[in-house]
Structures are given as structure tokens and as C-alpha cells.
């Protein structure tokens, strides 16, 4: 496994300038890899499309939906019981169903939020934004600090480190896997 330093650039010209600066800093052509990272959700990594079944920000949405459905169902049943005169049993069932439906939606939405990098895992990722990724194989002593310095100086976002399979570039890059702090 190779030690890899990577950073994302919004502009191609900035990424090209970073590659040239890294080459001037002593990195060889076979120690650099440039590739485009698609926007989150567009990597088609699951059988039904998308990148993952849930993200770091939606881990607890299922629990929120269940709690919301129970509370909404009870409130819908109570409201229908108090309002309905004729066909009370049908109204109570309808009120419970409608309350559960609305409650599950509100409960799930109440638990969804933006994910934080600190809580990201491969199963519940916080995917990087789209852009041109520059990856540097930094196995030589001191090369990781030099790579981080150059990438940051030239405006890279989401600079981090990883370990991976490096054969003529970073072969096992996974946009769902969070980069570690450099």
C-alpha cells in the first residue's frame, strides 16, 4: 500500500499549476495522478444506482421515520375520533393512516442533516464535492509534507491522506472513503 496525499481543485488551470509545481518540487511523473471526481451520488456504485444506501447525514432518518409514524398515527387516530360522528371506525383508521404517513415523513426529515467528515465511514460517507483531484504518491521520506504544502499553496480543497494501490496512478480510489487529515 502506498501513502497518498490528495487534494481537490475547482478549476482545471489551478490543478495544472499544482502538477507543474509538484514536478518542480521533485515528484516524478509516475508519482502523480490527476482525475476528475464526479458530483456526489453520480458514481453508480450500487446495484440500483447512486453511491451508497445512506450518507453520514441520514444515518438516523429511519429511526425518525418510525417514531414519527407512531406519534403521527396516534395523533391522527385521536383527531379522527374527536371529529367524526358517522363512520367513526373508518374515520379513525383513515386518520391513523394519514397521521402515520405524514408523521413518518416529518420524522425522517427532522433527522436528516448535512454530514460531518468526523463521522463519515465507508457505509455512511460524506462524499467530496466534484472537481479535479490531484493524488501524489508520497512514499519517500518528507515527501508527504512537501506535497501537502504545494497543494495547499495552490488552492487545493479537501487536502488529505490515504493509503491505496498505486500502479501507474491511484487504482483503488473510492469517492465514498473519507481522506484522513494530513
Structural features, described:
Helix 2 runs antiparallel to helix 3. It is built from 4 helices and 4 strands; from the N terminus they run βαβααβαβ. By secondary structure, the protein is of the alpha+beta class. The longest helix has 24 residues, at 88-111. It has 2 domains: 2-39 and 125-164, 2-Layer Sandwich (Alpha-Beta Plaits); 56-111, no CATH class.
The fold-level CATH name of the largest domain is: Alpha-Beta Plaits
Total of helices: 4
User: Could you report the average pLDDT, rounded to the nearest whole number?
Assistant: 85
- What is the CA-CA span between the terminal residues? 17 Å
User: What's the architecture of the largest domain in CATH terms?
Assistant: 2-Layer Sandwich
CATH hierarchy class name of the largest domain: Alpha Beta
Number of strands: 4
Give the percentage of residues in beta strands: 15-25%
Low-confidence runs of at least 5 consecutive residues: none
CATH homologous superfamily caption of the largest domain: ACT domain
Helices and strands, in N-to-C order? Answer: EHEHHEHE
What is the rounded Rg? 25 Å
Shape: rod-shaped
Structural class: alpha+beta
Strand order of the largest sheet: 2-3-1-4
Amino acid at each position: 500500500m502506498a501513502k497518498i496525499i490528495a487534494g481537490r481543485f475547482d478549476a482545471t488551470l489551478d490543478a495544472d499549476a499544482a502538477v507543474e509545481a509538484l514536478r518542480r518540487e521533485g515528484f516524478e511523473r509516475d508519482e502523480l495522478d490527476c482525475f476528475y471526481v464526479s458530483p456526489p451520488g453520480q458514481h453508480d456504485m450500487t446495484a440500483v444506482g447512486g453511491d451508497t444506501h445512506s450518507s453520514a447525514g441520514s444515518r438516523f432518518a429511519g429511526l425518525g421515520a418510525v417514531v414519527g409514524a407512531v406519534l403521527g398515527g396516534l395523533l391522527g387516530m385521536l383527531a379522527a375520533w374527536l371529529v367524526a360522528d358517522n363512520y367513526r371506525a373508518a374515520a379513525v383508521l383513515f386518520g391513523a393512516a394519514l397521521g402515520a404517513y405524514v408523521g413518518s415523513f416529518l420524522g425522517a426529515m427532522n433527522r436528516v442533516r448535512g454530514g460531518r467528515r468526523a463521522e463519515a465511514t465507508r457505509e455512511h460517507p460524506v462524499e467530496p464535492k466534484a472537481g479535479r483531484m490531484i493524488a501524489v504518491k508520497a512514499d519517500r521520506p518528507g515527501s508527504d509534507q512537501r506535497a501537502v504544502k504545494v497543494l495547499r499553496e495552490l488552492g487545493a480543497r479537501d487536502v488529505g491522506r490515504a493509503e491505496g494501490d498505486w500502479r501507474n496512478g491511484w487504482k483503488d480510489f473510492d469517492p465514498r472513503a473519507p481522506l484522513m487529515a494530513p
